[in-house]
């Protein structure tokens, strides 16, 4: 893709990154080692904005409990006694009132978590997310590139979780469904909606669409498209590149004009099935059909060739609101859509690297499970801040900084201060540790099987992708190809 179409990280917001997660543009509060996961001001503001009961005991106030929940998410897989041993001495420096209090027990933390509303952790997450938190973002065609996708989180089987969260057919554990908006180039989560797995991704996206803002370019998978969702997302001022299904009836559209780059200008119309679904969702039984809307359809094939020269071809169709083929050529739009996978890799970071592979959330009640999920998202964004800080010092792309190395460095950083002198490494030492770690090789193009069955016979391998624009049948059989490896 031409450099004019896609640019690298924006390094002008260095101070925002250095300020830490959720600090906004004012620099936040960076005092103490705990500032790498949450500043004191952000936690206090989150508690003030929610209906959080006041606790008389100073040792386990709402602020202290919220930080301990973040610590449990950061040290996922470790027990509460381990987290207390790590964080309690740091909390004494963060809150001087704890200097006179002995270390609490794990049972006391469990009781304190019940008193802490999940909305507090959600507010902490939202303080470091949303429009404006774009340092390091990839910009394409002058827009900030973002992607939407969904996943599920396995929950503990005991307690009251099955009463609120659906156990999938043939499954063993209740699951929560999570739909997020991810900033490409940094993998920061800009917005999220959480509910039972019984709620569809499309239904959750309808609650999240307001997170879009002018200046964004949204990448969406084929399961999100409908006329109503397309119109609602476009009404936010953001531009869209959404994949649609390849079936002949999956895209009710009327061809208007073939463009010079092989793309097709179409008039989208609402099908009978789409109108019935909208009527059912809104309760308006006599709602009229939506008006037609103009969009641009780009059809292309991706040929994946491995080292043994074995090709595999897949067909794609994407719709976009970028109607000018000169400002957004079809070849560049097709290449841009490949970055939607950053939403998938973000889930891998959260679920496999941070939480741990094949590990369920530890909470046995819906409220605590929701609390833990928002804590994982808040900690993930805090780790992204540290990766951005290191990328600025290294003058490289944020994705070149190893997420695993950042997680290990932050965990090592949150150690009790020296008992003799009280000294503790500052944020600069943390950054140095991250920058000295091996980097990711972002120039590699690799693929791996997605299903468990395929992974039994296939391995991750180097491949070359060739994108070929497929013109509509009415145009001459001329194609435009792009090869990258």
Question: Which terms would index this structure?
Answer:
single chain; 485 residues; 2 domains; globular; disordered C terminus
Question: How would you describe this structure to a colleague?
Answer:
The protein is α+β, with helices and mostly antiparallel strands. It folds into 2 domains: 6-126 and 366-435, no CATH class; 139-299 and 317-348, Alpha-Beta Complex (Transposase Inhibitor Protein From Tn5, Chain A, domain 1). 35% of the residues lie in helices and 20% in strands. It contains 16 helices and 14 strands. Strands 1, 2, 3, 4, 5, 6, 7, 8, 9, 10, 11, 12, 13 and 14 form a 14-stranded mixed sheet that branches. The longest helix is centred in the C-terminal third of the chain and has 29 residues, at 366-394.
Query: Given this structure, which CATH class of the largest domain is correct?
Result: Alpha Beta
How do the SSEs run, as a string of H and E? EHHHHHHEEHEEHEHEEEHEEHHHHHEHEE
Return Rg in Å: 24 Å
The CATH architecture of the largest domain comes to: Alpha-Beta Complex
Distance between the termini: 13 Å
| Largest sheet: number of strands, sense, barrel closure | 14 strands, mixed
Counting H and I runs of at least 4 residues, what is the number of helices?
Answer: 16
Structural class based on helices, strands and sheet pairing: alpha+beta
Give the percentage of residues in beta strands.
15-25%
Work out the helicity level.
25-40%
Task: Look at the structure and give the mean pLDDT.
Answer: 84
Tertiary shape? globular
Number of E strands: 14
């Amino acid at each position: 893709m031409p450099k004019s179409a896609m640019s690298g990280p924006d390094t002008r917001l260095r101070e925002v990154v250095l300020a830490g997660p959720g600090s906004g543009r004012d620099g936040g509060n960076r005092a103490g080692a705990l500032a790498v996961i949450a500043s004191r001001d952000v936690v206090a503001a989150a508690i003030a904005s929610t209906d959080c009961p006041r606790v008389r005991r100073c040792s386990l106030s709402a602020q202290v409990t919220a930080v301990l929940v973040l610590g449990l998410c950061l040290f996922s897989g470790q027990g509460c006694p381990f987290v207390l041993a790590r964080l309690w001495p740091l909390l004494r420096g963060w809150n001087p009132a704890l200097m006179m209090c002995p270390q609490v027990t794990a049972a006391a933390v469990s009781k304190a978590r019940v008193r802490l509303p999940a909305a507090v952790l959600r507010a902490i997450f939202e303080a470091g997310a949303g429009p404006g938190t774009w340092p390091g973002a990839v910009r394409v065609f002058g827009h900030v590139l973002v992607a939407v996708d969904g996943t599920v989180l396995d929950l503990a089987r005991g307690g009251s979780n099955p009463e609120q969260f659906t156990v999938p057919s043939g499954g063993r554990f209740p699951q929560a469904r999570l739909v997020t908006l991810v900033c490409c180039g940094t993998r920061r989560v800009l917005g999220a909606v959480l509910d039972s797995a019984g709620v569809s991704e499309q239904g959750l996206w309808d609650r999240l669409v307001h997170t879009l803002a002018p200046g964004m370019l949204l990448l969406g998978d084929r399961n999100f498209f409908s006329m109503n969702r397309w119109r609602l997302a476009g009404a936010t001022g953001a531009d869209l590149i959404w994949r649609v299904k390849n079936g002949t009836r999956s895209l009710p559209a009327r061809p208007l004009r073939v463009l010079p780059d092989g793309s097709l200008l179409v008039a989208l119309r609402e099908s009978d099935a789409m109108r019935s679904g909208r009527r059912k969702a809104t309760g308006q039984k006599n709602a009229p059909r939506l008006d037609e809307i103009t969009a641009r359809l780009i059809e292309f094939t991706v040929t994946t060739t491995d080292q043994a020269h074995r090709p595999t071809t897949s067909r794609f169709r994407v719709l976009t609101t970028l109607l000018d083929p000169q400002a957004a050529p079809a070849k560049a739009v097709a290449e841009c859509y490949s970055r939607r996978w950053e939403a998938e890799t973000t889930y891998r970071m959260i679920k496999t690297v941070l939480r741990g592979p094949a590990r369920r959330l530890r909470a046995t009640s819906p409220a605590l499970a929701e609390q833990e999920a928002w804590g994982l998202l808040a900690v993930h964004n805090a780790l992204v801040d540290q990766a951005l800080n290191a990328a600025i010092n290294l003058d490289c792309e944020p994705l070149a900084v190893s997420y695993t190395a950042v997680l290990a460095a932050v965990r090592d950083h949150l150690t009790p201060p020296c008992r003799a002198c009280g000294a503790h490494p500052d944020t600069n030492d943390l950054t140095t540790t991250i920058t000295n770690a091996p980097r990711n090789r972002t120039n590699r193009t690799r693929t791996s099987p997605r299903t468990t069955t395929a992974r039994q016979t296939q391995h991750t391998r180097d491949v070359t992708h060739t994108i070929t624009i497929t013109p509509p049948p009415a145009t001459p059989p001329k194609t435009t190809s792009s090869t990258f490896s």
